[in-house]
Amino acid sequence: MSLMNKSTKEWNKQYIAGQWVEGSGEKQLDNLNPFTGDVIGSWTSSSKDDIDRAYRSALEKGHEWAALPPGERSKVLRQVTVVMDQRKDEIIELLIQESGSTRVKAELEWKSARRVAEESASFPYRMKGEILPSDIPGKENRIIREAKGVIGVIGPWNFPLHLCMRSVAPALALGNGVVIKPASDTPITAGWLIADLFEEAGLPAGVLNVVAGSGSEIGDDFVSHPIPKVISFTGSTEVGQGIGRLAGEHLKESALELGGNNVMVVLDDAEADRAAAAAVFGKFLHQGQICMALNRIVVDESIYDAFLEAFLGYVKKLQAGDPADPKTLVGPLIHKREVDRLLGEVESAKKQGARVAAGGTAKGSVLEPTVLVDVKPDFDIVQKELFGPVAVIIKASGEEEALRIANDTKYGLSGSVFTTDLERGYRVARRIETGMIHVNDQSVNDEAHVMFGGEKASGLGRFGGDWAIDKFSRMRWISIQNPYRDYPLVNG
């Protein structure tokens, strides 16, 4: 059944054991359109009991799901891509309405999420084991790969469909049961929609479950429940640290994709216009509300003026406003309070000596694309993940200073280097402490078959391709002894 044909009441419910059921928590929550402020819907939060029922369903039905032939699991994942094709327009409209995605960003997110499902469809056939020799006569050592059991997925609001699908699709393809706790700001696109897509694609009832509520009410119970083997979280470093601690206390794995203070280094031999165009996209896509978004743009002093002229030229052409307008690149921030926070950061930077070269004003929840120049590496704003449409441009005196600035952060997620000498770009990229970095491209890159993950305070673990297989499945050693062994001091 299409999402748009579902009743409002049904979409206000939890999805547990294959049924849309009323939450039994104490809180009533509203789902708001960040641009208009309109209420999309309201729902009753999940409770601890709801979480327990969801995990138990995922465990029981997950065992049955894992026992199916690989072709059966692969077929469901392939069918998800078919359903996503059929419902593309609907999914894009939901992303625009619920997360404030611009149309161009929503299109990219739909494509990325679909690609994850497509890549995951191959995973059931990539669960390889091996047979190892033994020094014990008659022993055969079998190393098998199998599902870990149940995966708990805590999804974000900024790329809700893609970043949840990045864990859900691989985990299911490998034979796990899954429970999603979507961000409260995007319960549909980070949770209920995903459940609906898999339900329509033929996933057996109960394998995938969704419990929705605020982290303050159900977050700890979701992580500490004894059933899930892995907690996959995408969000802020501060929240991720708490989840990592709690998961560690209960001796369960975590996959943490956290914050970033991503840098673009523009070297002295770079083409200024090309670098500027890439920087504008990498900074302002989805209003900068992306963990991979550029936070700092470090430009060699020899081409600083040319770069800044080109950068400002592109920025001043950007359209900010209604995310549903195809010409809009900068839409609303997720909350009005985020506008106030960012304007406060801009004012603080100005007091330290920064200058606003563009933007600096807001209308409602839309902050104009803002550019700060005359920024020094020791300014407070340089060390913060801004998560908004504020570009910080820093002048560097040579390659070594640019590298010092680039690495002077607790984060290490993504990054970028621009140069006309590709081998030089590779050498510089090797010296920047990030999990991912791109030469002659901006920092926002994510491909389903390639590893994704950060260093330092940007997270633990890797997503994508073979790395997702490693995260959501396990290896076990099963030996077979034939004939029976004789044991010293026992068999004589």
TrEMBL record:
**Where is the chain membrane-spanning?**
none
Q: Mention any Pfam family matching this sequence.
A: Aldedh
The UniProt record lists the Aldehyde dehydrogenase domain at 20-478
UniProt KW keywords? NAD, Oxidoreductase
Q: Which residues form the active site?
A: 257
Which SUPFAM superfamilies does this UniProt record tie to the protein? ALDH-like
Coiled coil stretches, renumbered: none
InterPro entries, alphabetized? Ald_DH/histidinol_DH (IPR016161), Ald_DH_C (IPR016163), Ald_DH_CS_CYS (IPR016160), Ald_DH_CS_GLU (IPR029510), Ald_DH_N (IPR016162), Aldehyde_DH_dom (IPR015590)
Q: Which family does it belong to?
A: Belongs to the aldehyde dehydrogenase family.
Question: What name does UniProt use for this protein?
Answer: Aldehyde dehydrogenase family protein
**Organism, as annotated:** Paenibacillus lacisoli
